[in-house]
Predict the 3D structure of the following.
Amino acid sequence: MSQIRLNLGSGGNILKNWINIDKYVDLPEVVKMDVSKLEYPDNYADEILAHMVLEHFPRIQTLDVLKEWYRVLKPDSKIVIATSDLDGMVRDWLDKDKVYVDGNGVEHDYTYNLRGIYGQQTDPGQFHYTGFDFAMLHKLMTEAGFIKIDLLPTNHTHHLYVEARK
């Protein structure tokens, strides 16, 4: 039996052998669904990837969104969350004299940080409502029920990558 893997807030980042879900994307490979109200039963998914989507929810909804993802995940299964790292963005913003080099080696001036803080704002799904540091995200994930919450290494100063288990 194949694993059920959910790519939440996929945008155009289509992953093979995953269920790609996004409320704002009209592609045949994407299930159009609100990732804060997943239309799946409890203990459904073997793995969840939520890449750059959690910051798109108002801060007061964040815990409920995490509880929803927890609900859908099977026991002892993995979730990986990538989200904006507010600490990193603020550090780079305050160091305006330097050129910012992103995770791909591309240089940007300091105003690039605004995109990370506020979102790209190119369409309704591209606004950021909140930012996180690891301590805050760890606390919320713990409250939602997740365990074994680990910060994953990254070369991108504006992103947090966190892995946890149900």
